[in-house]
Every structure is written in structure tokens, then in C-alpha cells.
Amino acid sequence: MGADDLHEGRDSDLDGVDDLDDLAASARAELVRMIEAGGVWDRDPVWREAFEAVPRHLFVPYYYAGAVSGRQRLWGESPERRTRERWVRGAYADAPLATRMRDGELVSSSSQPSLMAAMLVELEVEDGHNVLEIGAGTGYNAALLAHRLGDDLVTTVDLDPEITESARRHLAAAGHHPVVVTGDGARGVPERGPYDRIIATCTLASIPRAWLAQCRPGARILTPFATGLAALTVRDAEHAEGRFLHTSAYFVPLRGTSRSDPEIPHLGALPVRTREHELFRFLLGLTRGSLDPQEAYALWEREGRPERERYGITVSGDREWAWLDEPTGPYAWPLPV
């Protein structure tokens, strides 16, 4: 919140709460209509009920708006009414919200609602499924899962105790009490397994073996990877395989691991349009350490600039690799284990 907001709001009080509640309900209904218009829920319309019922603004009592170099903190209890209204409207925008900064770096956020909706549909949840979420964030995604499945079947884990404590508060304010665990997401939460579904809301560099060991055979893992979303089917504790979805996805890295988004190498020798092409940068992220940019460019052009759905990941024993078209085909790149 800027200094101008503080001075401008000195004579204001926190009246009009009912009006803000009405504004939140109206903004939430508009967000639901917008997501539905995109056809996201066609395969599983039950998720619409969750987005209608769960109030996102309770999970973002403050967030940072604007560019990284000039973020403004919007606060739901600002003394300035116009700021509170901006906060409510922003909470229901179809946009990611920066919720926690540390030393100028983003460490936690609330994801774009339409992307969350798409991920929940792709998770292919069924009644009675036991779900583990990696990355508690604000607690909003756990609340959506809990609305669908019930509190007892949802576990969310995060390494940062400040994040898990605030997620618990937000969830309680919204009337949900799933299990919130402070711990290393890469290790899962074995005491709450076995799981039918695991969903991550942070980017990985490899698939943790602990997750496979905590899954039932046939379980589904949905996780951000490079700048995409990988959906893997677990065969057993040693094997999982699946392809990427078509959508792009940008998340903060899983804390407690090495960064999964290292600086892209120098691309000056490549055509400008290639350097900036989102699918080419996805390939660079997926093959880092295996292909240099020139090799990646040659492959990308030779194979017709592949869409994400042509790529996949296989975990088998002590090996893990990404591939194009087929797990045993000519294009495969080892991933760190």
C-alpha cells in the first residue's frame, strides 16, 4: 500500500462491509462465468460448484499488484475504501496474485483461477479419492479440493511454516479444515497416503521417487515442469509415465530443491523469433544440460516446432528422462534424479 493511500484514507472507516461482500459475490460470479465460457469445465462441471462456493478473497487478505519493480500492496483492511474495492476486484481477476515476497523475490502466489480450474479438471478427481497437494500457497486450491472431496481426503504440504500457518487461517475462515503439513514437499506426506492423486503447484526439475511410493497403482500425478504441465500415471513405486498437456504453466520452483528454472543460455546466434518463441523456450528448459541452444533449434525445426503434447516424461527405477513422441524413440534426454 502506498503512502498516498494512507493519507487519502485517514478520514475513512471500515464501513460498507456489506457492500464489499456484495461486490465480492458479484465479482466471483463474473469470474465463474468467464471460466465457464472458456469451456474449461465441460469435462467435469462439478468444479464450477467449487469455484462458485469458495471465496477467493478470503485467501488473499493482501497481495502485491503491479510490476516487480514497483509493486503496490493491496490490503483488504485498508482504511481507504477505494483501495479495498480494488483489492476485492483484483482478488477475482483471472490473474495470478503475488502474495509473499522475500528480498524482492516472489516466493508464493495464488495461481490464475482459469489455470487452476484446468489443472483440477486434468487431475481427473473422483469421489473418494485421497489427494496430496504439493505447495500450500494461500490454501485456495486446497479449499477447492476440500469442497469437492471433503476435508479428510485432502492434504497440502509446504516447507515454509509462515505459509502453512496462513493457509490454515484462510481455510478456517472459509470453513474448511483439510490437513495442512509443514514439511518438504519432495518427500510427500507418507502418513496420509496412499494417494490416488498428487497435484503440485510449484515447478520441478524431476519427479520425486517418494511421490510414487506413496501412490496407489493407477494414481495420477499432475505437476508443472519446465513451462508446461506433465500428467503421469503411476504403475508402481518404481514406474510412472505420461505426456505434457497443451497449456503453458509458470510457477515458482519447489522450495528446498535446486532452482528448476536456471538462466537460459546465450541465444544470440538464433533468429529473434525463435529466441522468443514460447514453445522453443519450453524445449530449452526440458533439455537443459543435454542439448545446447543450436542443437535444440535444429531439432525444433526438423520436427516441425512440436507442440507440448508431443513431449513426455518417464520414471523407471533409478532413471528418469524426457522424450519427444515416444519414450523409447530417438529423442530422449536424462533428467536429474
Q: What distinguishing features does this structure have?
A:
alpha/beta; single chain; ten-stranded mixed beta sheet; 14 strands
The termini sit apart by: 43 Å
C-alpha geometry:
globular
What letter string, H or E per element, gives the SSE order? HHHEEHEEHEHEHEEHEEEHHHEEE
Strand count, sense and closure of the main sheet?
10 strands, mixed
How many β-strands, per DSSP? Answer: 14
Query: Share of helix among residues?
Result: 25-40%
Write the layout of secondary structure elements.
Elements: H1 3-8, H2 17-37, H3 46-53, E1 62-65, E2 72-75, H4 81-91, E3 97-102, E4 105-110, H5 113-122, E5 131-134, H6 140-149, E6 154-158, H7 161-173, E7 179-182, E8 195-200, H8 209-213, E9 215-225, E10 228-236, E11 239-248, H9 272-275, H10 278-286, H11 293-302, E12 311-316, E13 319-324, E14 332-334
Parallel strand pairs: 5-6, 5-8, 6-7, 8-9
Antiparallel strand pairs: 1-2, 3-4, 9-10, 10-11, 11-12, 12-13, 13-14
Structure description:
The protein is built from 11 helices and 14 strands. The chain is an alpha/beta fold and 337 residues long. The strands form 3 sheets. Strands 7-6-5-8-9-10-11-12-13-14 form a 10-stranded mixed β-sheet. Helix 2 (17-37) runs parallel beside helix 4 and helix 3 (46-53) crosses helix 6. It is globular, with a radius of gyration of 21 Å. 42% of the residues are buried.
